[in-house]
Specification:
Layout: H1 3-18, H2 25-36, H3 44-49, H4 58-68, H5 73-90, H6 92-104, H7 106-117, H8 121-135, H9 142-155, E1 163-165, H10 176-182, E2 189-196, E3 201-206, E4 210-216, E5 218-223, E6 226-231, E7 234-238, E8 241-247, E9 253-260, H11 265-277, E10 283-288, E11 293-297, E12 320-326, E13 328-331, E14 334-337, H12 340-347, E15 353-357, E16 361-366
Antiparallel strand pairs: 1-7, 2-9, 3-8, 4-7, 4-9, 5-6, 5-8, 10-11, 10-12, 12-16, 13-14, 15-16
Helix pairs in contact: 1-2, 2-4, 5-6, 5-7, 5-8, 6-8, 7-9, 8-9, 11-12
Amino acid sequence: MNSESLDSALLALQAIVQNESGLSVQELDAALARVAAFGSPRTAAPLLKLLDDQAQQDERMFSLIHAAEAFDDDAYVPELLTVLPSLRERSPKWASIVLLRALNNEHTRVALVHAVRNAASPIREAVQWLCERINERGAQFLSKTLPVLLAVRDAREGEPMRVRRWGEISDLPLSEQVLREMFVRADGYWLYPNRYEAGVGFPGTLAQPVRLYVFEGECSYSFGKATVRVRGGEIVDMLPGAYDFEVTADGPVRLMKVFRMPESPARVWKETLARIATAGKVLAEWRLLSGVTFQMYVPPPASAASESIHPDSDVRFHEIETLRIMQSVKLGGLAATNDLDAVRRALGHDPRLDVADTGGELTVRLAAPGSAG
């Protein structure tokens, strides 16, 4: 089959789809089968261009989407991106649906992030607009759209940072609780809350892209010659690099940085606990993200497939916030003397961990990328 016959098959399909009043399922399936027989990834874009918000039968539109999605991500994602700018203008409903389907698939989402970084400006703008419209549907979508929105931000490295109002993304109140529900630690997100008093200022470094949420007050971040000022109820995406931070109002500022960890928290904690276990019997105070605290000996290394810290425990690795190991522990019926030197040797220097050592006590938590601030 040659390219002309493929074009003819696409034109025939277009005519059938546009004549919706006389469209039968058999005719559509037969036309799609003729197009699919060519096995050409370049058919994905023409198929997606046929999506129409005015179509009366959604199942016919989904038939077109399914046919376009039949190709692997490396072939499909570039075709999808080429269509999104025009599809957003003509059929925003279906543009959102087809993008959300890509975001819901982990492998396709990764391919999308890589492709967006190298995409032309109109494509990036369409992707950003659609992601923001998807976010308006509910907070649960933010964990899917954020990596793509940060990729758009990465591609605009030379452009000024854009401050947005929280209300542009969600109707929910901006709070720490809402953000923790949006960005789940199990999915690899780290939330880093801070409060700074009036007059505070310091230099810092971001090791990876960060989205900053300001709950109250006002502050500024200066990256070289570019300075962005953010107030309560505002959001800004910041790129990696050195910065100067300053509280710019008379009162305190409360904020939270959200970023994606390079490794899953569960994996880091599993490896960390396995190393601590080599230091002998270690009695520790455990604090979970839920605020629950308890004392328990560090268990032997878990099996590779285990998600819980112990076979008889419901606590999962990703739920751990901090591990506090004291030289002498006496509480209730538990009493122990921990060999902190052995624990220090077991921990070694792991850049993924933040270990506070006061001499008689070690507090272990996952490290935030970059320096303080």
